[in-house]
């Protein structure tokens, strides 16, 4: 991925996840020729979320998002999925950082 808004958004999300869950493990999974860097995954006793980049968005998918409270209404994708939920962020979308951190904390606590 070139250095564009998506790179900056992924860095922002990574920073928030690291703030929310000290000691979180980040790994690149699903490496393939069309995505040589792979997909960043964040775990802490189980998978918390993945961060994928697309042409028009960055998608943060919470592995067990359907079981999480989302009072700020951050989830806006995969709403019909049985277990997961996602947040699609486009270039000019604002991310409520405190609500996102709370969601990540809740997801990690559910794995404990």
Structure characterization notes:
The structure is a single chain. This protein has 112 residues and is α+β, with helices and mostly antiparallel strands. Helix content is 28%, strand content 24%. The chain has helices at 5-20, 97-111, and strands spanning 25-29, 39-43, 47-53, 58-62, 85-89. Strands 1-2-3-4-5 form a 5-stranded antiparallel beta sheet. A hairpin with a 4-residue loop joins strand 3 and strand 4 (58-62). The longest helix is centred in the first third of the chain and has 16 residues, at 5-20. It is globular and about 35 Å long. The chain starts with a helix and ends with a helix. The model has no long low-confidence stretch (mean pLDDT 94).
Brief digest:
By secondary structure, this protein is of the alpha+beta class.
Task: Fill in the keyword field for this structure.
alpha+beta; 28% helix; 2 helices; five-stranded antiparallel beta sheet; 112 residues
Estimated structural class:
alpha+beta
Give the N-to-C terminal Cα separation. 34 Å
Radius of gyration over C-alpha positions, nearest whole angstrom: 13 Å
- Percentage of residues assigned to helices: 25-40%
Order of SSEs:
HEEEEEH
* pLDDT < 50 stretches: none
The rough form would be described as: globular
Q: Tell me the strand percentage band.
A: 15-25%
Number of helical runs?
2
Biggest pleated-sheet summary = 5 strands, antiparallel
Query: How many strands in all?
Result: 5
**Strand arrangement in the largest pleated sheet:** 1-2-3-4-5
Oligomer: single chain
Q: Please state the average pLDDT score.
A: 94
